[in-house]
Each structure stands twice: as C-alpha cells, then as structure tokens.
Amino acid sequence: MAEWTDRDGAMFPTLTAEQIARLAPLGVRRRVAEGEVILDPGTVPRGLYVVLEGRLEVVSSSRAGEVHITAHGPGQFTGEVNVLTGRPSLVRTRAAAPSELLEVNHTALRHIVQTDPELSDIFLRAFVRRRARIIAEALGDLVLLGSRYSAASLRLKEFLSRNAQPYTYVEVERDPGVQALIEHFGISPQEIPVLICHDRPMLRNPSDADVAKSLGFNVEIDESRVYDLIVVGAGPAGLAAAVYAASEGLDVLVLEGNAPGGQAGSSSRIENYLGFPLGLTGQDLAARAFVQAEKFGAQIAIARMAAGLNCSRQPFSVDCVGADPVRGRAIIVASGAEYRRLSLPNLRQFEGVGVYYGATSLEAQLCVDEEIAIVGGGDSAGQAAVFLSGIAKHVHVVVRGPGLAESMSRYLIRRIDESGAISLRTRTEIVSLDGSGHLERLAWSHRDTGATESRDIRHLFSMTGASPNTAWLQGCVALDDKQFVKTGADLSAEDLEAAHWPLHRHPYLFETSVPQVFAVGDVRSGSVKRVASAVGEGSVAVQLVHRVLAE
Ligand SMILES: Cc1cc2nc3c(=O)[nH]c(=O)nc-3n(C[C@H](O)[C@H](O)[C@H](O)COP(=O)(O)OP(=O)(O)OC[C@H]3O[C@@H](n4cnc5c(N)ncnc54)[C@H](O)[C@@H]3O)c2cc1C
How far apart are CA 221 and CA 234, in angstroms? Predict the structure, then answer.
C-alpha cells in the first residue's frame, strides 16, 4: 500500500490560522513526545487532534507489521467518520516529532459541525473521503472467512459493507491457502463464516449483533437515559426522522435491527430521488444519511432489533433482542417492510445461496456470465433486471400478471423492452427450486397453459410485494387488515374506541392509535412505497413530535 495521495486537498486539508483560532477556545492544548501514541487501533478516539506544531504519523498496523499511510503537519488534523460515530479507530496515530496538539473532544466537535458551516464542510468532507479510502484499502485487519455455499457468509458481507466496515473477504473454495488457516484455527464447516481480527476473539458463525458488539458499533449508546424520541428502523424514513429530530435539538435514539438504509440500501440504483439526476446506489444514500444523523448528534444502535413496545405507560419502553430495553417520551415506528417470500417448500434452504432479496454489487459479483431469474413486476425488480443485465449472461423477469404496465415505471419498462439480455415471462410463476448446497436449477410454469419448464438457473432474485415489519408492535397500535400501521385520519372511531384513545383531539397526521407514537414510511397503512415519501414522512413526523412533547 502506497502513501495516500490527496489530489484535491480534501482528504488531508490544512486549516488556516484563522480557522484554528476559531477552534482553539473549544479545545485543549497538549504536548506530546516523539514516538508517543495518540490513538491505537481498537480504541475509541476522544475527538480529533489538530497539529499546532510538529508532526503526527498515521499507520495501519497488523500482524504483518506497520504500513505508513500519511503524516499530518501543522494545521492538519486527525480522524475519520468514527470520530463522529464514536466507533473504535482502525489506525495508529503517533507523534513523529515532539509536537503540540489541539485536542477537540466529541462534544466540542459536534458543536462545531453544527454551528460553523465552513469548518463543518472541511471536517465532514475529509472524514468521508478518509473512510471511503479505508474501505477501498480494506484497512483494519478484519478478515471474513466465508464460503459461497453458506448463506451466513453473504449476510455478513452485506452487514459489514452496509455498515461501511472495511474487511478482506477470503473464500474457502477459491483460496488455496485457506485450508491451512482452517486447520490452524480448528474451524469446522458449521462454524463458517468466521470473523478474524488479531486483537479480538475470533467469531465463529456470529450473528449481526455479535459482530456489532465485537467491532464496538454501539459503544456510545446509553440505555439508562430517557430519550425524547426513539425511532425504530434506520431506513430512509427513520434516518430522515433522526436527522430532523437531532438537528432540532431532540435527544434521539434510533434502533436498527440490521444496518442503515433499509430496503433502499439493497437497491443498485435509485434514479427517481430528487436532486440525483444520475441516480445513486441505496448504500450511498444510506451512508450519507447516516453521517448526517450522527453529525447532528443522533445515536444509532446497529443490529439492535426492537422486540416489543410497552405503550401503556410513559415513558414508553422498547424491548430489544439481546440488549437492555430503552425508554423514550415519543416513538416513531419506521420499521418498514420486506419482500414477501415465495411459497415454495424448500425456499429457506436456498436463501443467501441462490435466492436473494436485494440486488447490490455483492450479489452481482455472484452472477457474472450466469443465467438468472428475477420474480416481481415492481420498480425494484425492474432496476435489478437492468442492473444485472450488464453482468449476467441473461436475465428472465418472471411475473404472474399479463405485463408490467400496471406496476413498473415507464423508464424501466422501456429499458427492459430494449435490452436483448432481458426476457419478460408473463403469466408465469416459479414452481420449484432444486440443488444441493446451492440453488442449481428451478422450474417455472405458465399459468394459462400449465406448461412447465426446468432451467439450470443458479440465481433467483425474489422481489415481490412487501409485508410490513409490525410483529414487534404486538398489538400495541391499531393495524389494517394487511398488518400495516393505521395513522391519523385513517383511524376510525371504532379503532380509537378499541384502543382506548384517551384524548379529546383526533390523532395527528402519522400518529397511531396511541398518543405520542407515530408511524412513517412503508410500515404505514396507505403509504406510497418510495424513498422520497418515506423521507418526507420522517421529517414531517418530527414536527408533530415537538407538538406532542409540548402538550
Ligand atoms: C431493491 C429496491 C429498490 C428500490 N428502488 C426504489 C427507487 O428507485 N425509488 C424509490 O423511490 N423507492 C425505491 N424502493 C422503495 C424504497 O426503498 C422504500 O419505499 C423505502 O426504503 C421505505 O423506507 P422506510 O424507511 O419506510 O422502510 P425500510 O426501507 O423498509 O426500512 C426499515 C428499516 O427498519 C429496520 N427494522 C425492521 N424491523 C425492525 C425492528 N423490529 N427493530 C429495529 N429495526 C427494524 C429494517 O432493518 C430497515 O432497515 C426500492 C426498494 C427496494 C427493495
């Protein structure tokens, strides 16, 4: 790895004397001797350091030794996104000469990024560029040992990528040196995937929550506090609520069962979100929103699944899987929806090993020059077809209906029609899956003629209608007949009576049958299933949270 170059000066900018003077009253001066370590990998940074005099060296350290990344001279500063998120450092920083530093702690840094637009721009741009580079270089010594025949391997790859965590992936079937590694560590096939990091215990077939704990994703979360607002779900709706709530001074905690981004995070390209004419990947959108929410001081607990809502008493309490309950004075339910599963008896056996619910670059890598099938007639299926047709040998779009006009945007229908690499199979449904260890073949049947055809297709993308993530609400709030949360004017007098609605006023827009509990985005009954509407609802609900907290 060569020293990092910084062509436009945005990754390693030098602050002017005037900018340093603005920071100085918020920081503490500190002298360090040559060789003194300021920050070690695995430790949580106290904030950032501006070099006033001398020089700091940044190195990546691993079992194999240290590699020089960059040096910070006078006016330059340390840190990347983890300075905002409070996650452990991935690099070592030490004084390369006797130096004088200005230490700016988390609280002071948050204050600066919220109140000083010029410094906020400089810091955020540098942090995001540094993190992108860290990911590209897979810095940080984290190795994921996985198998193409293990669904958990794909799950963990997605979890790490969607949490912007750099790692090196080693596939058992592809890498000849891996067998020796497996023997060395005494790993059995059932224990794959394995996460190895030299300074932490090895994790064998871990859950997302195990990984989040080991990597210190949630070290800043304070379960003893009563938050103004708890948002459940960090999809577009929940992240928007977090950004607006935190920026407007509310003390907000977001619980996310998996990784930020929600369904949008599994999209290869979102082209209809206002302001992004060239489109952007769902992961890009989520990463930006995540940093934005952290910048304003929202706390986001990763791999923290809400398991129940106790809404009979104030403050509300939310039970979490494998962690202490958390308490809040208002709740925003933004737990979204997920694709319905095809009703095929052996479907689960192939999930992650041939059957997928998202079409990002991770799944795309598996489909190079292969024939694939996509089930579904909505925009997500259309996007996946267009994206994967550039990688796969051929894409079959399978829909039960007579065509796409009813369910898919025109621009996608046109692209599918014009592509020689995509075939549309209407009035057709998948009737069987087959394979050992991995999907090897599937069959589809024509609904009118009954004709059945078997194909050697190893990758099936299931993108059919969504069902809401409301099981965790356990009857706390009124739901519609499809289990979506009813809000505002959709709540009938009978709903409110059954829920013992205690107030004279009717529920506000997006308020559920329980006062101070709101629902936004795809989880809400009657919502438009779009990124823009989810973001809009999340931001509007925050205005109403202010109102109910003041009541
Ligand atoms: C592949 C794909 C492509 C798409 N493309 C587009 C597009 O181009 N344009 C467009 O406008 N829309 C698109 N959509 C639709 C859009 O992504 C959704 O409408 C939007 O993501 C809904 O946002 P949300 O925040 O309401 O819910 P979600 O995105 O569903 O997010 C909900 C979040 O809540 C979390 N969660 C669920 N249960 C719990 C729990 N109990 N505890 C804690 N967390 C929980 C989930 O892990 C998830 O992160 C696409 C969807 C998909 C799947």
Answer: 15
Query: Looking at ligand 1, which atom is closest to the CA of residue 239?
Result: 25
The C-alpha atoms of residue 378 and residue 399 are separated, in whole angstroms, by: 10
Polymer length in residues for the chain? 551
Return the sign of the alpha-carbon dihedral for residues 269, 273, 279, 280.
Answer: negative
pLDDT above 90 covers a percentage of the chain that reads 72
Q: What is the pLDDT of residue 160?
A: 95
**Token duo for residue 32:** 């360090």
Question: Distance between CA 378 and CA 262 in Å, rounded?
Answer: 17
> In DSSP terms, which residues pair with 524 in a beta bridge?
485
Query: Rounded to an integer, what distance in angstroms lies between the CA atom of residue 6 and that of residue 219?
Result: 31
**What residues form DSSP beta bridges with 146?**
171
Amino acid residing at 71: A
Say whether pLDDT at 2 is over 70: no
260 CB-contact burial (10 Å; exposed 0-12 / middle 13-18 / buried 19+):
buried
Q: Of 162, 335, 535, which is best to mutate to test ligand 1, by the most ligand atoms within 8 angstroms of its C-beta?
A: 335
- List all residues 6 or more positions away from 149 whose beta carbon is below 8 Å from its beta carbon: 173, 353, 437, 438
